[in-house]
Task: structure prediction
Amino acid sequence: MAWLILIVVVAVGIPAVAWLAQDHLLFFPQPLASTAHLPARASTLEVVAADGAHLRGWIVNGSAAQAPAVIYFGGNAEEISWTLSDPHWPREWSIVGLNYRGYGASDGRPGERELTGDALALYDAIARRDDIDPRRIVVFGRSLGTGVATHLAAKRGVAGAILVSPYDSMVAIGRTHYPWLPVSLLLRHRFEVVADAKRDAMPLLAIVGTADSIIPIERSRALYDAWAGPKTWLAIAGADHNDLGATDELWQGVAVFLAQR
Result:
């Protein structure tokens, strides 16, 4: 009888812990420690979400009077000022991003509905600016942010999308890492991206690392195959999930893609 009780406790207890802890497993909010690394042409940006949350980030202004813009959505443990300040970005382009809710100086707590809704609010604010060319806005997502970027692209008329380590479904990713859990029953933030990808007719650049230990390459390929528009697949040999962004091949691919928009 004791063994039966133990089995029941394990069978019920582990999924219960996973249900309660899942937000902490998916989102890793990072503080804003400094802004000294941002370039002088960066200015603060604040967008008020539909529910009143204040979302804070930056726009690194491009050299053109009415500049094309990249709207960037980061990974699940990323404070975005570091990526916005990267010197590899083409100087002509304005680079825009807000920290997710609970990240940096942004209000609130992150969640799928909140992040996708906030992305639309950010796009709408940027497209109205006099210093941005609304016909040349490209969305750029990395890891978790690829789902946000794909959703935004399906809802707004963007000129292109760059997805680094994309995925088709957070449920599928969860099953890869936690095969003993009923992930499809437990997961609240599902990020089922394929339906959006099937509506995305703009050009796509998908960049993956062949040694990605977080998002299996077959999950990236499933999203890529679902994309409705013209698309380019760039696989960087030997790159893992967290070192992909430091490769010259990634930034060369980004530069070529943006030059064509």
